[in-house]
Amino acid sequence: KRWEPSNGFEITDEMRVMIASQAAILILELPDDSYRLVRTILVHPTTVLLTGERHLGGGIMTREPMPILGLAEHRGPVLITWDTVRNDARHPGTGHNVVFHEFAHQLDMLDGTVDGTPSLATPEQFSRWVEVCTRVYDLVVVGAAGQSISSYAGVNPGEFFAVATEVFFDDPVSLRREHGDLYEVLSDFYRQDPASRLG
């Protein structure tokens, strides 16, 4: 992968290793080429202000500037803010991790769409995924999903998958306790059981 700093910022080996190692956790049991669409990783020192017209969903457009901590584009770069990466690494267990989040988007994009459904192995796995994720997503949208999944997961199904991935790897015990069925479908997809590593 090509690493690019923002203007005037220097990327160190520590930064590369920390970002790459966190991204690698997601694909420990997935095919080696799971990040084949990621060509460039842009690293900024701190929050980036996103400008220009964009969709908010439901046919609503805005030009309001929006602060972001990361961004993943289909067949484009992954943007990561270094201060957030460092904070997430120093304070694990909060359910938030910008690297997990943005690289989960890249896994979602492998089939060409950002719909919260990565490539699944069998039709049965797909059916179970849709049933469980739709139910929990609907709970998030109405504010009834509990504490482990942040409200940002209710923006759209793509964000739901990315947020659920953050919690699955960063606070797996809480996710398993509140949403055992969601934990199971994520465990089936990632072929990992992160909660077992904490016990």
Explain what the structure shows.
With about 200 residues, this protein is of the alpha/beta class. Helix content is about 45%, strand content about 15%. The protein is built from 7 helices and 8 strands. The strands form 3 sheets. The protein has a 4-stranded mixed sheet. The chain has a two-stranded antiparallel ribbon with strand order 3-6. A two-stranded antiparallel sheet has the order 4-5. The longest helix is centred in the middle third of the chain and has 19 residues, at about 125-140. The N and C termini lie far apart (about 35 Å).
Poorly predicted sequence stretches spanning 5 or more consecutive residues: none
CA distance, first residue to last residue: 35 Å
Q: Describe the strand arrangement of the main beta sheet, using strand numbers.
A: 1-2-8-7
Structural class: alpha/beta
For the largest beta-sheet, the strand count, sense and barrel status come to: 4 strands, mixed
| Alpha carbon gyration radius | 16 Å
Quaternary arrangement of the chains shown? single chain
Please give the share of residues in helix.
40-55%
Shape: globular
Number of DSSP strand runs: 8
**Proportion of β residues?**
5-15%
Order of helices and strands: EHEEEEEEEHHHHHH
Number of helices, counting only DSSP H or I runs of 4 residues or more: 7
The mean pLDDT is 90
